[in-house]
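Postdoc handover notes: sequence design on the structure in folder B. Input tokens:
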């Protein structure tokens, strides 16, 4: 389906609309470097680990996947575990505390090209949604000035409250499309993470657009992306040209 013919556009948040993926990466690196060392793993944590095991997934799932890749198995724990707890939830909560501190100190602004595309779609009356695994999605939207610009938000909090499986399952995107009253095959998904692209592809969406923020076009196409761009402003030309 051509981008210009879409009845709705569903956006991931971190790395797609805002550069908070970079903040997440810094926070994860700080936490995982110490956690791996505490368990005697001499191999350094890297950005490749982030993209392979953490990017786009619900927070605790990412913790579990990364640690298991190093042969480390922690008890899952509970979502209200203290950040000091040596559980999957504790490690995830530790990371969230670091992320919140960075966000509060440094703030965040949307990618200029992404903001242009959102404004373009709103001006054309195209329904939009944010679909993010992050439980920090709404604070990030508020901090970046994007709150209130989307017709619906399906985030990590929504997923927990409503029992919606996280990415790479397609359910969060399917819920957002249903809330917009749009069939998946008539909607576009915009993602930057392999797990998110896989989710959109599995959901049967009409067009899966990947913005390459470091994963690499080949990996995104292999995961199911139909189109890969470097900046979302590129899609405005497609929209105006009817492509």
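Designed sequence:
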């Amino acid at each position: 389906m051509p981008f210009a013919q879409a009845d709705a556009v569903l956006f991931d948040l971190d790395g797609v609309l805002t550069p908070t993926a970079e903040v997440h990466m810094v926070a994860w690196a700080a936490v995982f470097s110490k956690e791996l060392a505490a368990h005697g793993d001499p191999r350094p944590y890297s950005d490749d680990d982030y993209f392979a095991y953490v990017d786009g997934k619900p927070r605790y799932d990412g913790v579990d996947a990364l640690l298991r890749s190093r042969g480390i198995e922690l008890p899952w724990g509970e979502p209200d575990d203290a950040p000091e707890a040596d559980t999957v939830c504790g490690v995830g909560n530790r990371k969230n505390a670091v992320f919140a501190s960075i966000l509060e100190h440094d703030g965040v602004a949307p990618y200029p090209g992404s903001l242009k595309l959102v404004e373009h779609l709103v001006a054309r009356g195209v329904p939009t949604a944010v679909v993010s695994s992050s439980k920090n999605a709404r604070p990030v939207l508020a901090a970046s000035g994007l709150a209130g610009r989307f017709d619906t938000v399906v985030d990590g909090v929504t997923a927990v409250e409503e029992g919606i499986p996280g990415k790479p399952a397609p359910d969060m995107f399917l819920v957002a499309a249903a809330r917009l009253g749009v069939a998946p095959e008539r909607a576009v998904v915009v993602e930057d993470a392999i797990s998110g692209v896989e989710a959109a592809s599995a959901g049967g969406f009409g067009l899966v657009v990947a913005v390459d923020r470091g994963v690499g076009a080949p990996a995104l196409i292999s995961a199911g992306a139909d189109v890969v761009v470097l900046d979302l402003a590129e899609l405005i030309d497609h929209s105006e040209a009817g492509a």
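Context for whoever picks this up: The mean pLDDT is 94. Don't rerun without checking with the PI first.
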